[in-house]
């Protein structure tokens, strides 16, 4: 394999700051949807359930874009793929910013979802392009950039929207995307020395179509009628497409996702738990953002501004970052296998708190802080479980599929929140009854209970492989899986770069 070309010292020095900025941009762009749903509904004269698609569609595209962009960028086209993806995000930001109506806003938010697959490529670039002594801290920094960016993005975009209007928040996204595109074009190294890998385009199309049908069923069931022929046809179509995609992935020589790795019980545990916990996470976030902004005249809610709503979500990001330091301690004092269900239990506590204590604004700050700890612990430990259970050359594919399932969970949770609240909205009314939030919280509690049960049952049957990594040092395994595998709450991984670079890493 040809060696990586030498980069100019000034560009190499600027590489990490630009990659970190790129990760922050992706996080801020992805955070634009959550606090703005009520504003979008009012500005574009659509229902709240329809406006929720401004968040759901970004996650849906992200679920498909992550393995697709990762496969395209794991080779000589990495620079072009990164620049192309940022350009797509820029175009999407401009479309969302222009006052062209709700349809164009959705198209723009869908294009912005392409950016969710960029962080793994940024990590891969840092891993391969930097000396070993610099790559490890750079990868660790990039691993928490997304979380920190979301925490910054919520209040920042909220402040811009509150001061300058709804579309100003998306113009802000366009500006920072344009800066990211210019900076990336300056510092990104060429990757022509890497070997090319084919893209499974049919697999990407099948996966996208199946997920779109599934989310339409969940989000439009109340409006169309759960037994309507159209909805039942979509449900059957989703199942057929998922089955077709599964068969295709198992038979193709270069699959989008290596499904055979999911047969490992520990990997299966991480995947199922990630999917289910992702549903609960975005269900809770969507509920809190809508509840906080609901006018008190509805009998509940606080009529909070977008700025205050962003601040309510800030403890989630702070606690998620803190959990990356907490997980190795928990793994050392208990067991790596126990951290996963423990995180689900903490998330369950957050949902229970929302169900029974949402009369004061401070209670919602507490809810999101608890949720951040729970979700952070759950997602931070998953890479260690997967890395300890699959061959080194397969970790990239295994973690990629785990990330896809999380994005699917996020999209399902977002759509589910809209569906439940729509079911509790009386005819002729805009806002759901307060009971709708109680029902949704009860569903969320069931989701996190299911996640905890799955984690306990499957890991117990999975034997001791999940309990320790090479050498039996759980704390080391977790720390390395967080730093070296570079995972954040979205579960991104740098291992495709290791495979492409002949397994060179900072260890």
Descriptive notes:
With 507 residues, this protein is mostly helical. The chain has two domains: 436 residues, Up-down Bundle (Growth Hormone, Chain: A), CATH 1.20.1250; 56 residues. Helices cover 75% and strands 0% of the residues. The protein is built from 19 helices and no strands. It starts with 8 loop residues before the first helix and ends in a 7-residue tail after the last helix. The C terminus is likely disordered.
Overview in brief:
The chain has 507 residues and is an all-alpha fold. It has helices spanning 9-31, 37-44, 48-51, 53-73, 78-97, 102-112, 118-129, 132-164, 166-187, 201-224, 229-251, 265-293, 306-333, 336-356, 361-387, 395-423, 434-461, 474-483, 495-500.
Instruction: Give the N-to-C terminal Cα separation.
Output: 21 Å
Number of domains: 2
Beta strand %? under 5%
Rg over CA atoms: 21 Å
Q: Can you name the CATH architecture of the largest domain?
A: Up-down Bundle
Structural class determined from secondary elements: mainly alpha
**Helical amount:** over 70%
According to CATH, the fold-level topology of the largest domain is Growth Hormone, Chain: A
Shape: globular
Assign the CATH class of the largest domain: Mainly Alpha
Mean pLDDT: 78
Q: Specify the CATH homologous superfamily of the largest domain.
A: MFS general substrate transporter like domains
Quickly count the helices.
19
Number of strands: 0
Q: In this structure, how is the largest beta sheet organized?
A: none
List low-confidence stretches.
463-507
H/E element sequence: HHHHHHHHHHHHHHHHHHH
């Amino acid at each position: 394999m040809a060696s990586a070309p030498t980069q100019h010292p000034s560009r190499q020095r600027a590489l990490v700051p630009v990659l970190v900025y790129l990760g922050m941009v992706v996080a801020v762009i992805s955070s634009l949807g959550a606090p703005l749903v009520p504003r979008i509904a009012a500005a574009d004269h659509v229902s709240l359930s329809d406006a929720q698609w401004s968040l759901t569609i970004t996650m849906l595209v992200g679920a498909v874009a992550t393995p697709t962009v990762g496969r395209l960028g794991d080779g000589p086209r990495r620079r072009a793929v990164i620049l192309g993806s940022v350009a797509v995000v820029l175009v999407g930001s401009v479309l969302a910013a222009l006052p062209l109506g709700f349809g164009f806003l959705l198209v723009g938010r869908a294009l912005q979802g392409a950016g969710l697959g960029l962080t793994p490529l940024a990590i891969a670039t840092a891993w391969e392009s930097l000396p070993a002594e610099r790559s490890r801290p750079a990868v660790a920094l990039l691993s928490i950039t997304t979380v920190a960016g979301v925490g910054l993005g919520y209040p920042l975009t909220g402040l811009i929207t509150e001061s300058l209007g709804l579309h100003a928040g998306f113009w802000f996204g366009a500006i920072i995307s344009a800066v990211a595109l210019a900076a990336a074009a300056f510092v990104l190294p060429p990757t022509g020395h890497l070997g090319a890998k084919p893209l499974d385009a049919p697999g990407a199309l099948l996966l996208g179509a199946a997920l779109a049908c599934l989310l339409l069923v969940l989000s439009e069931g109340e409006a169309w009628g759960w037994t309507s022929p159209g909805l039942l046809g979509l449900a059957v179509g989703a199942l057929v497409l998922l089955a077709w995609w599964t068969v295709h992935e198992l038979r193709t020589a270069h699959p989008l996702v290596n499904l055979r790795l999911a047969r490992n019980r520990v990997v299966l545990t991480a995947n199922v738990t990630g999917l289910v916990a992702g549903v609960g996470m975005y269900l809770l976030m969507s509920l809190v953002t809508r509840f906080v902004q609901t006018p008190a005249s509805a009998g509940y809610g606080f009529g909070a501004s977008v700025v205050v709503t962003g601040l309510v979500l800030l403890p989630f990001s702070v606690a998620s970052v803190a959990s990356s330091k907490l997980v190795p301690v928990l793994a050392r004092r208990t067991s790596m296998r126990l951290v996963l269900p423990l995180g689900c239990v903490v998330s369950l506590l957050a949902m229970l708190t929302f169900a029974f204590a949402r009369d004061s604004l401070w209670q919602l700050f507490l809810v999101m802080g608890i949720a951040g700890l729970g979700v952070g612990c759950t997602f931070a430990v998953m890479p260690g479980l997967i890395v300890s259970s699959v061959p080194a050359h397969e970790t990239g594919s295994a973690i990629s599929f785990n990330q896809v399932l999380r994005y699917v969970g996020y999209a399902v949770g977002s759509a589910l929140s809209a569906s439940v609240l729509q079911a509790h909205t009386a005819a002729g009314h805009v806002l759901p009854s307060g009971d709708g939030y109680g029902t949704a919280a009860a569903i969320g509690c069931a989701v996190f209970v299911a996640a905890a049960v799955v984690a306990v049952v499957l890991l117990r049957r999975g034997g001791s492989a999940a309990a320790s990594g090479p050498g039996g040092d759980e704390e080391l395994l977790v720390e390395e899986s967080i730093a070296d595998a570079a995972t954040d709450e979205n579960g991104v991984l740098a291992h495709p770069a290791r495979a492409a670079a002949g397994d060179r890493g900072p260890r």
